[in-house]
Amino acid sequence: MNRLLPSLPIGALLLGAACAKPPEPGEPLAGLDKAQRDQFDRGKVIFNRVFEPETGLGPLFNAKSCGECHESPVAGGVGEEVEVHATALFPDGFCDPLADLGGFVYQQEVTPALKSALGIDKEPIPAKATAQGRRSSPDILGFGLLDAVPDSEILSYADPDDRNHDGISGRPNRFFDGRLGRFGRKALVPTLKEFNEGAFPVEIGVTVPTVPDEGTIGGQPIPAGVDPLPEPELDADSVALVNAFVRFQAPPSPPKLKGAARRGPELFEKIGCAACHVPRLKTGDSDVKALAHREVAAYTDLLLHDMGPALADICLGLASPSEFRTEPLMGLRFSEKFLHDGRAASIEEAIRLHAGEAAASQGRFAALPQADREALLAFLKVL
Amino acid sequence: MTLFYAVLLVGAAASVAPPSPPAPTPAALAASATLTATVRSVDAQARTMEVVTGVGYALRVVKLSWTAAPTVKAAAAGAEMTQIKRGDLVRVEYVRAPGGNVVKTIEVLPRPAPQGAQ
Questions:
Q1: Would you say residue A39 has pLDDT above 80?
Q2: Which of A93, A108, A200, A364 has the largest CB neighbor count within 10 A?
Q3: Model ipTM value
Q4: Domains of chain B
Q5: Which chain A residues are Cβ-neighbours of B118 within 8 angstroms?
Q6: Which residues does residue B60 pair with via DSSP β-bridges, in sequence order?
């Protein structure tokens, strides 16, 4: 990995800005103008709006509001919901997201009208699927900053052929139109706006102007009369406000490192965690001043890494079953379950389950003297 | 005759399938549109293909068909539709006709190199 060292001018800039108290979780970014703060406040209301069938919910859905899954400790935080994805991998390497068969997100809830029409409790997963993946609900605080990181910065960490022989070969995923992806556990989605807008129909069954149709029920058309509301069920202004709310969320405040945790950053670097979990990314130009040319303590390279067969599930876009985006450790303090499906009950367990490209780093973690391991864990816990 | 029916059938299927991007309103019919997407299937005999596109995780399949051979732009000169395979990244210019989406030109785009923008 050819990581860039944090550059001085930006560090100095941040120091200047750090005089003001950093925003608490759930607060907007510092430095927004009044109009932007107003959009943030109004967007939060729609993020938390509970939809019912009369207001657009379903016919298939996973939950009734964005805030139901992204809720703890504040709107935009983590959630207990685990959703189901399924795709089909062909021998020639082509990954079919089964978009004609309702894929790749298979909703776990149905409205009463759909249940009485078809007698189903959730969207059926087609026999054609070759794998299923479970996905826990992550926090999205500070993700406006991840959105503002230029493609060139992400690509600068890529080393697909491992030319520096460190055993780590991050590579980018691409959306179906060829653009660089970065959001979601498999880094499929290029922009935050698109992720949010797709989440309305996919998670809540609410159509929006950019996705004006409900899709299908596992490939079958929606029975007549089951979803009577005209499309789109949510207007462009409301969608724009939710985009503003998500984009303007402040990142978790810088951790206060006490005692042994102060040795954490150095150990993190030393045992090779930082080769994937790049501590700081830099944003580029942005129409929002508060997002432009900032450092974000992301702890990710937003690239895909092979994590070994035990963690593998679905393919998605160019990502193979065992490839996952380096999970941002920004906001780790909010999580109680770890890894893409929440299988790890502690941070330590999550690290021990690192394999594939992360095997060497995991080995170095396991070999650390106990006091060092504890120092590293104390540091991770407050990110 | 067979081909004619195949195109008609595909046209019918395409009009029921979730259209994307923007649903063809009557005014938009016969208008030309462009789309960059990944090929999911091609049936050169039936003269139909499906591509994947969408917004975030809301993915959709767009069905396309052709009558006269479309212009194929590819690295190799004289390329034909039979050379297009699933997984290819394509830019398609098509017409939203009453019977479905009819391809005018199709260009096979190079997959961006992993280190592209460097």
A1: yes
A2: A200
A3: 0.93
A4: 30-108 (2.40.50.320)
A5: 152, 155-156
A6: B53
